[in-house]
Structure formats: structure tokens, C-alpha cells
Amino acid sequence: MKPVFEKIDPSFGSSFTVQVFDNNSACHISNWHVHPEIELVLIKNGHGKRHVGNSITHYSDGDLILLGAYVPHASFSNAIYADNKEIVIQFKREFLGTELFDKTEFKSINQLLNKAQHGLTFGHDVKDQLFDAINGISEKRGFERLLTLLHVLQNLSQTEDLKTLSTFHKPTLPNPYDQERINAIYDHVSDNYQKSITIDEMADIVNMTVPSFCRFFKRATNKTFSLFLNQYRISQACDLLIEKNLAVGEIAYQVGFQSATYFNSQFKKIVGQNPASYIKSFHSQIKHN
Q1: Which of 20, 29, 104, 214 has minimal Cβ neighbours within 10 Å of its Cβ?
Q2: What is the dihedral of CA 96, 25, 44, 113, to 10 degrees?
């Protein structure tokens, strides 16, 4: 499913957005979407499926997630748990000027935001350390709110206790023409991953020879097109494994694999476990929360 673009307006009197959602708020609408804002989410209460890029995992109370600009994701909250509550902070990278995070003093934050293009989740120590600051940011205004956000980002940038969520990331390229090519490639895969997709076909779409296409895609994404396509298909398979009561072989064909054996080998290579273990692990996490 192609992500829907979400337009976000900054909070009144602020250059960025702070929202508190609960069980009765719109946060339980699990739409697959993107937005140009970087997003920091603190789950105060609640648990459920966390879908970021091509990663589908389980979130629980206290989780802290940082998502880069245009990272496709579904809303984390849901309507199942009466005490569900989350705090969401959203800001554009240039919200304080186009060059702020390029300054020497912001070097570590800049590196953090680059890592966030794959989605990040943080360990218990840093979550506990920053819980009060993030929890209280909605009560602050103006300069104090801004300082709190910068304080939180600086602390997050200093920790090594973090985990990358997704291998899926559409790069932002400096050349607009190259960006159009990448967009066309990603859109075609999103619309046609269930069918056979060849390198020749992709090269034709962006008016390149096959060797030029392969070099361009590897340079832009740091991966081969075949690996990217398999990762995308496996991400769709993860969703189906959790949401649908279908046989693994049927899911393999639904996401574009012609061989169930090859699907299983790629699933284990990309996810780190076979499909049956993945389903068992996911539901085990839910049971323990």
C-alpha cells in the first residue's frame, strides 16, 4: 500500500508540533502515512503493532521512537486499551533555519537525525532519563518548550543504546532529476511488487541502460535493486503474516515470490528468523504486555 501524505501544522505559537493523544483521540487510526516532519513518540501507556518502513514489531509502555522525515509508518496508538496514551513531537529539520543542524555544536544531533531515516527505538536507561522532560513538554511554551526539545535531542544523540527499526529508506538526493528517478523506482515497486519485476523493466522506466541503472541505484541506496525488492516484498509479507490467517506459501506468492523455498530463505536472511518463528515471537510479545 502506498503511504498517504499527512499535512501537519505546527502548534499555535510554536515552530513545531506537540500533541498528546489518548484512547479517544485520532491516534488510534492506523493509517499508513508519511510526512516531511521528524517525529518523536513516547508511548506512556498501551501496546500493539509498530509498523515502520519494512519493520513490524511490538511496542509497549515507555517505548521511545524517533522517525526521520518521510519514513513511512502507521500510527502507534490504538483503541483497544482504555489507558492508551502517547506524546508526539513533530518538527521539520529546518524548523530553526536551514543550516542550524550543520553547525559544529549540533553535530551529534545531525548524526542522530540521519540515523532516524531508518527509524530508531531507544533502551530503558535513556527512556527513563528523558521521560519527565518529554512528558512535561506539552505544559511548556515558547522558549522553554524549544529548549526542552533540544535537550531531549542532545541526550538521545549521546546514547549508543538504540536500535534501528527499518532497512527501508527512500534517499533524499541533491540532484532533483535523480530524486525523480528514485521516486519513480519506489512508486513502481510499491504498485507492482506482487508481479514479476525485472532490471530491464526498471531501467526502461527511468530511461537508463541496465548497467547505468544498477550503478545509479547502488550509489543512491547503498544496496542492489534485487536486495531492495526482496526487502520490500518481505515487509509486505510480515504484515500479512500478522493480519491474515493464510498459509506461508500463499503469502509468498501474494507478495511476488515464485518459490516458497526462496521466500523462506529470504525471509530468514532479512528478518533473522523463519516466518513461523516470526509469528510466534510477535504474539508472544503481545501476550506478555
Answers
A1: 104
A2: -30
For residue 69, the one-letter residue type is A
Q: Which three cell numbers stand for residue 160?
A: 549508543
Question: Is the Cβ–Cβ distance between 267 and 278 less than 8 Å?
Answer: yes
- Which residue is listed with cell 528478518? 271
CA 206 to chain centre: 26
Instruction: Please give the model's pTM, rounded to 2 decimal places.
Output: 0.73
Would you put residue 159 in left (φ > 0), alpha (ψ -120 to 50) or beta?
A: beta
pLDDT tens per residue across span 177-223: 999 999 899 889 989 999 999 999 999 999 999 999 999 999 998 89
Give the whole-angstrom CA distance, residue 166 versus residue 234. 12
Paired with 22 in beta bridges are: 85
What's 76's DSSP letter?
S
Q: What torsion do the CA atoms of 21, 26, 29, 35 make, to the nearest 10 degrees? A: -80
| Contact assessment for residue 170 and residue 182, using Cβ atoms and an 8 Å cutoff | yes
